[in-house]
Amino acid sequence: MGAVVKGELSSILYAPGYQYDIIRRKRGHVGIAAQANLFDTTGTLSASAQVTGAGVQQAATSRSASLLAPIPVAGPEFRLYLTNSPRLFVEGNIYGMYLFRYGNYYSTAGNLGFSLSKHFSVNAGYTIGSRLNVNTSTSRNGVSLSQEGPLVGAEISF
What is the dihedral of CA 89, 106, 41, 148, to 10 degrees? Predict the structure, then answer.
């Protein structure tokens, strides 16, 4: 009792995928996308050497682990071009995957992008919400991870 522990969790998302336009017009499109969200996650717990209130000495300790977890997702997405040239656009999506008895994952994001050429664009935006729930049927262990924050990316289309 009285020990102080510091925890840190870092999770970077890589998301290669494919998007198909259901409705395509000059000013934008509405489509469906499928991608593999690759979460590169690292966690660290550390405690300084200390003496607790009961007079028990504890040595300094630290542990860390990392995991690359792929989660396939699919869902609707849209893009609206704001100008003709240069091609400034806004886009958004809602992706998810039901993980059967293990839980579910869903996310939504909005971006502002700029087409540098016909086949290459860059974008930046905000992940409005990303939630992963994983449960086990044999114990009360599980994961509930919520994320939000800025994102940046590059897109190659062909």
Answer: 60
Domain count, the chain: 1
Is residue 83 included in any domain, yes or no?
yes
pLDDT in tens, 88-128: 999 999 999 988 877 888 889 999 999 999 899 999 999 87
Residue 5 lies inside a defined structural domain of this protein: no
This prediction has a pTM of 0.72
Report the alpha-carbon distance of residue 20 to residue 117 in Å, rounded. Answer: 19
Q: Domain for residue 2, yes or no?
A: no
Q: Could you tell me if residue 4 is inside a domain?
A: no
Count other Cβ atoms within 10 Å, centred on residue 93: 21
Q: Which residues does 157 contact at the CB level (< 8 Å), separation at least 6?
A: 118, 119, 120, 121
Q: What is the extent of the structural domain holding 79?
A: 13-36+69-156
On the question of pLDDT at 137 being above 70, the answer is: no
